[in-house]
Write the structure tokens for this entry.
Amino acid sequence: MLTRRIIPCLDVKNGRVVKGVTFANHLDAGDPVALAELYDREGADELVFYDITASSDERAIMADVVERTAAQVFIPLTVGGGIRTVDDMYRMLRAGADKVSINTAAFCNPQLISDGAKRFGSQCIVLSIDARRVNEESAPPRWEVFTHTGGAGRATAKDAVQWAREGAERGAGEIVINSIDADGTRAGYDLELLQAVSAVVGVPVIASGGAGTLEHMLEAVTVGRADAALAASIFHFGTYSIAEAKRYFAEHGVPVRGV
């Protein structure tokens, strides 16, 4: 089995890390630069930085916060939020990001994925998808893509699994799957969603939304077949450390770096 990654996520609003439940009711979780430095020191494999209201507020990402965060870490940094053009991608990469994550802008303009991959390489382009279950209880599972989720969120009627496949075909080097239903609940990832996406794309899938225990994270990469588990609350509020997560994976036969 390939090495699996543990990735803490910094959802940043007004320059502070926040964490909510199902993308709402945000609580302050600290300073992004201080948390980034901590996670780098603890041995996180990567770090994700999302300016969560940049798209819904129709503004650019806070480049100064990205620069200060990037200056404190020596692990791969993915930056997302408010990235609408290839030039925006370039600015974030110049500010210190290793990868750029696109979500709403990619959905509104799918060519952005292809253009970014052509200019910077697929390894730099991450497609983030916010998905919500929309099937009736007795029907087969189905998930719909939502955009502008830093605000009220907008339904698109687009099937999330199909969009993930299209994004990979257009050149995205990774797919982040955010379950809106599970986000912040600490009740576990949507494993069926992860399985469905992992089955149709040939690029790494990152599980997001719902981590409450180390067992949840383990399930994401075993049952859900994700390549990485992204988490926020359980790290920000001290429930578990990065080292504890890596030891737990290793003890259950899942290879990780730096145990």
Summary: The longest strand covers residues 5-13. The domain at 5-251 is CATH 3.20.20.70 (TIM Barrel).
